[in-house]
Write a structure and sequence with these properties.
single chain, Immunoglobulin-like, 36% strand
């Protein structure tokens, strides 16, 4: 009897872990559309540190989107803040105006929760811009095309 207990306990553990993994996978699939990632390219004179990624993820609420900006090669002054926004149009053909303000980039990252759906953001051409601290020039830009 002791040998049967010894072999079934690890089997039960493995089965439990498999069930947990399947449940997590099903929850992730049921939670909404897949993430959308956009490459952010360094603009003229900004240096390669401004190459990064903007990732759009459906939020926990039905009408929310989490936008995460990341610049892995960036080394910044901790106090420095770089304004970021989602604007209508593309990087090559920007449109005047701001659709969504994003949390400024600090320490090479920014995370913002927007009151919108992922579908509404990806339905039209938008660009993600990060500007210099004084907002006079675009440091990084990435186009989100439908």
């Amino acid at each position: 009897m002791a040998s049967t207990m010894g072999t079934s306990a690890p089997s039960m553990f493995v089965l439990g872990m498999l069930a947990f993994g399947l449940a997590a996978s099903a929850a992730a699939t049921a939670s909404g559309p897949p993430d959308v990632s956009v490459g952010l390219a360094s603009q003229a004179g900004a240096g390669k540190q401004w190459n990064g990624t903007a990732t759009f993820t459906a939020g926990a609420a039905a009408d929310s989107v989490v936008v995460a900006l990341s610049f892995p090669d960036m080394m910044s002054i901790p106090e420095a803040a770089y304004p970021a926004a989602i604007r209508p149009g593309t990087c090559a053909a920007p449109t005047v105006g701001k659709r969504y303000s994003l949390t400024p980039v600090r320490n090479s990252r920014s995370t913002t929760t927007l009151h919108a759906t992922l579908g509404s953001i990806t339905a039209k051409p938008f660009s993600v811009e990060v500007r210099s601290g004084d907002s006079t020039r675009v440091l990084a830009c990435g186009s989100l095309k439908p």
